[in-house]
């Protein structure tokens, strides 16, 4: 199995991690730091889907409408997309009938056939899932393909998230975000790179965001219970990313170092 040549020397065995956290909790920041500290490559379901939409693949075309409406893409497609990506990168071994249909980040495509992957225990086969699984059903399907061995639940108080969101500015064309208290743009109100104006996202108003947090919590509870029962759930609490990172690093070293 080709597990790549990434430097994961801090890890002694494969870390197959799922990062779960509410919108605005700093999941992107933690994901970037895990890549930096442990070379843990993040696989983002949203990014993979957007790539399929851009490439006009059958899956992308199918997913586009659902994504636009803010709904969830069909579970079976999501599982094939993610497991296919993991096999393509050599982090799980796939046996079975693979036929074309989905554009992964490379030539392997997996729609239309049963797949039976097996995860490598080599630390170079470590990865981080972001955005998948989102439902208990997806988690159960993933279980039958590959055993994830740590689910990190980022527990950030809603007040802290709302406070952050209230101070968030975004450069819409690039998605670059700033914070008027701790990550100010060099010049007030404009993007550092393009000089274009920064705006507030329409869904960043506290009332709307509060609702999103509530519905996230309701939707995620069954997923967390599923992984709790499986004995792989670990919750880390903190109001800021800097409070969470050292705890997360220590836990990963304890389990996989
Ligand atoms: P994200 O970038 O994670 O916010 O995902 C963007 C969109 O992709 C979501 O609003 C969903 O429509 C779709 N999506 C991403 N991940 C999943 C998933 N695990 N299950 C179903 N749909 C997903």
Walkthrough of the structure:
- The chain is α/β, with parallel strands linked by helices and 257 residues long.
- The protein has one domain (16-93, 123-256): 3-Layer(aba) Sandwich (Rossmann fold), CATH 3.40.50.
- It has eight helices and nine strands.
- The chain has a five-stranded parallel beta sheet, with helices on both faces.
- Helix 1 (27-38) crosses helix 8 (241-256), helix 4 crosses helix 5 and helix 5 (136-143) packs parallel to helix 7.
- The radius of gyration is 19 Å and the shape is globular.
- It starts with 15 loop residues before the first strand and ends with a helix.
- Residues 1-5 and 97-115 have low confidence and may be disordered.
- Bound molecules: adenosine monophosphate (AMP).
- The site of adenosine monophosphate (AMP) has 15 residues, from helix 2 and helix 3.
Short overview:
Helix content is 40%, strand content 16%. It is α/β, with parallel strands linked by helices.
How many structural domains are formed by the residues? Answer: 1
Q: What do the pLDDT scores average to?
A: 85
CATH superfamily: P-loop containing nucleotide triphosphate hydrolases
The count of β-strands is 9
Classify the helix fraction into a percent range: 40-55%
CATH topology: Rossmann fold
Bound molecules: adenosine monophosphate
How much of the polypeptide forms β-strand, as a percent range?
A: 15-25%
Assign the CATH class.
Alpha Beta
N to C succession of SSEs: EHEHHHEEEHEHEEHEH
Strand order within the widest sheet?
2-5-1-6-9
- CA radius of gyration is 19 Å
